[in-house]
Amino acid sequence: MSKGFDDLLSKVASCSRKKVSVAVAQDGPVLEAIEVARTRGIADAILVGDLKKIQPIAEELKIDLSNYEVIDIEDPVEAARKAVSLVHDGTADMYMKGLINTKDFLKSVLDKEVGLRTGKPLSHVCVFEFEGQQKLYFLSDVAFIPYPTLEDKKAIIENTVEIVHACGIDCPKVAPLAAVEVVNPKMPVTVEADELTKMCERGEITGCIVDGPLSLDLAIDPEAAKHKGAEGRKIVGDADVLLFPDIHAGNITYKALTHLCKCKNGNILTGTKAPVILTSRSDSTEVKVNSLALGAVVAEAMNK
Amino acid sequence: MSKGFDDLLSKVASCSRKKVSVAVAQDGPVLEAIEVARTRGIADAILVGDLKKIQPIAEELKIDLSNYEVIDIEDPVEAARKAVSLVHDGTADMYMKGLINTKDFLKSVLDKEVGLRTGKPLSHVCVFEFEGQQKLYFLSDVAFIPYPTLEDKKAIIENTVEIVHACGIDCPKVAPLAAVEVVNPKMPVTVEADELTKMCERGEITGCIVDGPLSLDLAIDPEAAKHKGAEGRKIVGDADVLLFPDIHAGNITYKALTHLCKCKNGNILTGTKAPVILTSRSDSTEVKVNSLALGAVVAEAMNK
């Protein structure tokens, strides 16, 4: 079981060495993270991009490009198409965004010929470790699906649970969050949370335990859960997956945790044939490296 | 300007000594907070409740009841009605919940004869201090109004700004939060945030600067704001007030900050004739004392 990012990183060591294909690699912060990931044994990289722009960045960061396979393509859209095709055909195990706008990057991910479509909806999984807690939390969706329908939420749970399984947790506890822990017809979010719980009970969602609606304290704080009444509940402060009502709730919480609480985190896009790493420019190198480690573990599980 | 809870507490020292009326005072954690508030000079208290239940609790907590005015009323609803009437008639400056359920407590707050109605909607304000930051943040609404309409949001801003002014910040910056910082017709929250911004520009909301929609990082992190483009914005990582899209986003963020990040906080109910303190059983003594200090400062400003 992954107890935190340190454990996740040591789990990577037991995986076969992975390869990440970088779309439009002329990006300083991305190259920095790629170099750390390589030296720490997390993954090798194929850098697809404009070589005459990659070279000076590598020089400045003291990165020896002879440690990498570089494919010189000037046009960003073409570079992304080449980079994603390397994952599509199995040459690389995961796909990472470089200096390309998100829209064009996602177009390459969804490309019908060379992309990573599975038919499932794509969703974003953010993995957190909180100070003083020896476990990982999986938050979704904080960045990708604006107003998930019930069907979308089922897909988000399935996508996320696949990532949790890859991290070594066999039957994660999934908490569909709301402001309250009781079903209230005036709050559609609570009705949907209850419906997801029943779908899991009926075997329509598998590989996890779903119990909602839950307020965040009852989902993650065993003391609060016991205090406020945990009778008949399947989650008593021990949730692994936190499912958000919508992107606003998810994104604001995510940014509170990263900007105000400086929690360790990493994140990937899932629902795809292979892990996709789509970190933001403002993410630290540590976050990018954590995301690559997460991608490596997920790629290992997918290839089994 | 209040730079944090320590400054807020020292601000209390310059106020005239306040009095809090406690509804159904036979509540250990509340009495503990009341005693700390008294000994630290934040407020005296009138304890309204069942004396034969108050006495053993006071004894166990080594609280000398001769330091308090006690009004012996056994029935909780009657006790609350008496306690709120003391604030209504000016005998006390603020009103606090003891061992009574929230519904009955709020009934007393809204009582047409002896309550604290103003005609304005009631809203909840939560005040946070984050580690390493020398300022207070005012979050609303995380606990009271489930799905605020545009009009409700205007009222929430007005209620909250009154509290911020009381804390010594003359023209607070109010950030209506969303997952994104651009108006998107497919995300009604962003349209409303833009409308609130315009209402402020037209002078329909006063005493503050409103700028939204904003993602949380752009609202509170100057570096992120500069990085992502702050041109033409009135808030560049320097928001004082964080307005949430709905209770789910607000409540989940609030609980992440309190349960995962252990941030200092205090909170009051406002929109009333006098501050109302409605802390939760799971709040620590520190939170309750911070809330009383906040109430004292707000009561001082209201009486001016």
Notes on the structure:
The structure is a homodimer of 304-residue chains. The first copy, chain A, has 304 residues and is of the alpha/beta class. Helix content of chain A is 42%, strand content 17%. Chain A has 11 helices and 11 strands. The longest helix of chain A is centred in the last third of the chain and has 19 residues, at 285-303. The interface between A and B is large, with 39 and 38 residues.
List keywords for this structure.
six-stranded mixed β-sheet, elongated, 304 residues, homodimer, alpha/beta, 17% strand, 42% helix, five-stranded parallel β-sheet
Could you outline the blueprint of secondary structure elements for this entry?
2 copies of one chain form a homodimer.
Chain A: H1 5-13, E1 18-23, H2 28-39, E2 43-49, H3 51-60, E3 69-72, H4 76-88, E4 94-97, H5 102-110, E5 123-129, E6 136-140, H6 150-166, E7 173-176, H7 188-201, E8 209-210, H8 216-220, H9 222-228, E9 241-243, H10 247-260, E10 264-270, E11 276-277, H11 285-303
Parallel strand pairs in A: 1-2, 1-4, 2-3, 4-11, 6-9, 7-8, 7-9
Antiparallel strand pairs in A: 5-6, 5-10
Helix pairs in contact in A: 1-11, 2-11, 4-5, 6-11
